[in-house]
Each structure stands twice: as C-alpha cells, then as structure tokens.
Amino acid sequence: MAILILGLVIFIGVHSIRLVSPSWRDAQVARLGEQGWKGLYSIASIVGFVLIVWGYGVARRTPMVLWMPPLGIRHLTALLVLISFVLIAAAYVPGNRIKRMIGHPMMVGVAIWALGHLLANGTLNAIVLFGVFLVWGAVGAIVSRSRDRAAGVQYPTGTVSGDAKVVIVGLIAWAIFAFALHRWLIGVSPLA
After folding, report:
1. For a tag on the chain, would you pick the N or C end, based on fewer CB atoms within 10 A?
2. Residues 6+ apart with CB under 8 A from 42
3. Could you read off the pLDDT of 88-142 as tens digits, one per residue?
4. Domain boundaries, the chain
5. pLDDT digit string (tens) for 30-60?
6. How much is the CA Rg of the chain, to the nearest whole Å?
7. DSSP designation for 103
C-alpha cells in the first residue's frame, strides 16, 4: 500500500500545483522555461503513475475487503464511466457547449470516473486510489471554476454539432476501453 500512496502523492501532487500555488508554478515556468517545466512535470507524472500502477497491483495480491459491492452495480459504474468519457472528450474537442457549461470537464469527468469505481470496488486499495481521484477531481473542478468566475473567464459558446462530436468521441472511446482495453490492461472485464 505504501507504494500506491507514494505514487498518488507524487502524481496528484504534481497535478495539484496549479490548484494550490499557481504563482509558484508560474515562477518555475519563468525560471526553467516552458519546455523545462513541462519536462520535469512529465517525468514526475510518469514516475507517480508507474508507482500507482505498481502499488495497486501489489495491493491487489492480498486485498483487504471492506465490503462486497451490490449485485448489478457494474451497470451503474459503466454508465458513470461513460459519462466521464464524454466529459473528458469535452475538455479536448473544440466548439462544444459542455465545456462552456462545466468549465473544467476533465476534472469533473475524473471525479465521476472515480465515483463509479468506488461503487464497484470494496477493497482498501481501491478506496484509497479512487477516493483520492474523486476528491482531487471534485476539489479541482470547484477551485478552477471559482477562479474562472473571479477572473471573468468566458469559454466559447459552442454548437450542437460540437456537442454531438463530443458525445460520439466519448462513446467510441468508452466502448473501446470497456469492451477491449480494460480487460487487457487491468485484468477485469467491467461488463462481464
């Protein structure tokens, strides 16, 4: 569990710098240059991610079961993860109204993804992993949206066709992950 926690501290820590200390981040970008900052940020993110994957895998060998998820919860989890894939797509597909409405759909999508996985997993390592991502996504979305409002940030209006593209991209990405990649990468078939 220690490896998982260390990985989460590094990964979430790096991804929280902009939330907790944007002025420090800006000073580092000025000192290191944009490419230098991105390089260090990327290396720390990769190290944190590798530790998370490794630590979670080690913890799965001897899981501490706290509860058994109710029968059929996988369907709710699949729906929540589908919604999260659509929201994450909204962060990157230009010209959609979802981004304007939510502001930070990536963070909201991560929080919904984590909530779905918390519902479907009753082990301590799953609660630690998905609980951290749920809190990070929710707090990050709230803090970022609040800063946007204070700064008067306005997102582009977007179109119905932009929304349709987001939904299609999200659905396709979700289907590929749910029906093929999840079992291959994680070892569990989420809809079986």
Report:
1. C
2. none
3. 999 999 999 999 999 999 999 999 999 999 999 999 999 999 999 999 999 999 9
4. 1-62, 64-192
5. 999 999 999 999 999 999 999 999 999 999 9
6. 18
7. S
Angle between helices 22-32 and 2-20 (to 10 degrees): 90
Give the tokens for residue 113: 């993804």
Whether the pLDDT of residue 189 is over 90: the answer is no
Query: 56-60: which pairs have CB atoms within 8 A and are 24 or more residues apart?
Result: 56/4, 56/125, 56/129, 58/3, 58/4, 59/1, 59/4, 59/123, 59/124, 59/125, 60/123, 60/125
Does residue 65 contact residue 100 with C-beta atoms inside 8 Å? no
Q: What residues contact 37, with CB distance under 8 A and at least 6 apart?
A: 25, 28, 29
Cross-strand pairs, 65: 123
